[in-house]
Input
Amino acid sequence: MEKLRRVVNEIAYTQDCAKLSTLNRSLLPVLKVVSSLYRVALYLRLYLYHFGLLSKHRLPVPVISVGNLTWGGNGKTPMVEFIAEWLADSEISPLILTRGYAGGDEARMLTRHLLGTPAKIGMGANRAATAACFLKQYGYIDPKSYLFEGVNQKVQSPLNLGQIGVVVLDDGMQHWSLHRDLEIVMVNGLSPWGNHQLIPLGPLREPLTALRRADVAVVHHANLVPEQSLKDIELMMQELKESLSIFFTRMSPLHFFEVGNINFRIPLDVIQDAIVLCVSAIGSANAFVQGIEKMGAFYVDRIDFTDHHSFQTKDIEMIMMKLRDLEGKFGFKPVVVVTEKDYDRDPEILNHLSPFKVMALRSELQIIPRRQHTKDDFRELLKELLEVKWSGAKH
Output
């Protein structure tokens, strides 16, 4: 299955089919048929929701959806965390709804990062049912008590740290059964649209015209993308929706922590002049590896798995072989660096890489100031859009 996923991913992000291997090209007819069936199912589902034959649940609090149009590597979960922290700092208790892929690695990471804040995390495929349970348990704040007085003004009620004020929907763009008041779409700047085809022939979960539903677009990994490419991405999105507000983000590395001792922070310069093996099963491995290369390692090698892949014994054996090869080549032990999401997926299996040192990289999302679009501008825009959308929904 892992090999098939690799092949499909390679096809999806190859612009010129002639560059594919003979084996990969032989899969194209099958993928085209499946992609056509997916398109029919997609439009049928949209039709049913558009004409009310499938119902949308509306919650008594505003819903911010953070989603994407392509699979993996778009920065959805870091953006969810960014928004949740902003709301928590404003003494508004957010409820994060996440489906819980790969056993809930992203949910575990969010739980650790948001520890000590009023943020709550609900996991389950039926996001509406999960939200209903949390709203019943904790109650909710009337949005008028903070939306129309300003999110940045502290509401005096001590219950605000417990009662839910806003729901943040992780990976919500295609989750149409739950009404949302604000739609944020994340775009991977390194590989925005692949071959422009619907899955599984391409990476698109919806046609690009779905961008017209978005209120805000965020180009992620923008620090790793040439200026002209950023302009091209921006122009293409504005051609679809001229009024679309576009921001740019990056993942900023904070520190490492050693597997088995998560509370001990290791400075980033520990890998300067080191031999590093990057191991990851995420949607944008290139961004992860490029970030490690910029930290000054002597040599960086990599082993990539497909997004959400759970490491198996055979994977550990393959990684060990690579580490021994690197040790033999350079004469001293390499270190393994994984992403925090990979650590949270299965921290125990990484211990089997002993005696080699394994570290996880802790990073956070940052808004890149560009064309006067700063972090404060982003927060203010979300506040204004929530006020407008919620007010319009209630009148």
The longest strand covers residues 245-258. The chain has a mean pLDDT of 91. The radius of gyration is 22 Å.
